[in-house]
Amino acid sequence: MPRSFNAHLRSIAICLLALFIIDNAALNAFAATFTIDSNLSALTATVTIGGGSPLSPQLPGSLTAQIQGTFEADVTGGSLQLPGGWNLDFIEQLGPFNPGAAPADFAASTIFVVATLRGGALDLVGGPTPIVGTNFAANATATFLAGLVQVGGIFGSASENITGLSFLSTPAALGSFSQSGSTSTLQIPIDFTAFYPEVGVTVRFVGQVVGTTTVPEASTFFLSAIGSLSVAAYGWRRKR
């Protein structure tokens, strides 16, 4: 073959190698919006008042709320960052629950006291934290974007708007990041204790959020590049 054609082939090979390197780097570096899987995402609340014993659920399951919504995450250079912009929305349970005889996210009670959290939503900010294998430490700051805690009983009633209150989430369990084809999945454990001073209520929230997003596969870009460059090479050869 002519020397010039060999040089052309070498140029194509260099281009393909560069595309392969860039493409694989892109596979492991992206910022995306994850959609929450409500079937796998929930928080369970342990409620105490004034340092007493934990309250019971008003109805079976009323101290566990599923979560819906979306969240943002950046995966770059083998690390994970949660930059905020989350909307972890608690799915309301019908009840009715007291005080107020209305739906609520969480509802607890004793013989003398009832308590609810209504209209709750969370943001989560954390990292960057290294991903080791598929796992990472999931420490983060949880901030209530909205929510109202209400307490009622024989001693009267009180309420507290918890919007803007922040608490440190320090789960013992590790989070996980995995990819299967074009689907990336993040599992983020949550464990934080919130104190609401105006109503004297302490709540520990424990659970997890699982979200998925779709990213292009590296092979998609790489195979497209091979096809384009092959066609170009064939056309150049025919002209010779």
Chain-wise SSE layout:
Elements: H1 3-27, E1 30-36, E2 42-49, E3 56-57, E4 64-76, E5 79-83, E6 87-90, E7 93-97, E8 102-104, E9 106-109, E10 113-130, E11 135-136, E12 140-153, E13 156-161, E14 166-169, E15 175-180, E16 183-196, E17 201-214, H2 218-239
Antiparallel strand pairs: 1-4, 1-17, 2-4, 2-17, 3-9, 4-5, 4-6, 5-10, 6-10, 7-8, 9-10, 10-12, 11-15, 12-13, 12-14, 15-16, 16-17
Helix pairs in contact: 1-2
What does this structure look like?
The protein is α+β, with helices and mostly antiparallel strands and 240 residues long. It is built from two helices and 17 strands. The strands form two sheets. The chain has a 15-stranded antiparallel β-sheet that branches. Helix 1 runs antiparallel to helix 2. The N and C termini lie close together (11 Å). Residues 15-27 and 219-223 have low confidence and may be disordered.
Distance between the termini: 11 Å
**What would you say the CATH architecture is?**
Beta Barrel
Q: Looking at the structure, what is the overall shape? A: elongated
**What multimeric state do the chains show?**
single chain
Tally of helical segments: 2
Give the class from helix and strand content and strand pairing: alpha+beta
What is the ordering of alpha helices and beta strands? HEEEEEEEEEEEEEEEEEH
- Integer tally of domains: 1
The proportion of residues forming helix, as a percent range, comes to 10-25%
The parts where pLDDT drops under 50 for at least 5 residues are 15-27, 219-223
Q: Tell me what portion of residues adopts beta-strand conformation.
A: over 45%
C-alpha Rg (nearest Å)? 26 Å
Specify the biggest β-sheet: 15 strands, antiparallel
CATH topology annotation:
Porin
**Strands, count:** 17
Mean pLDDT: 84
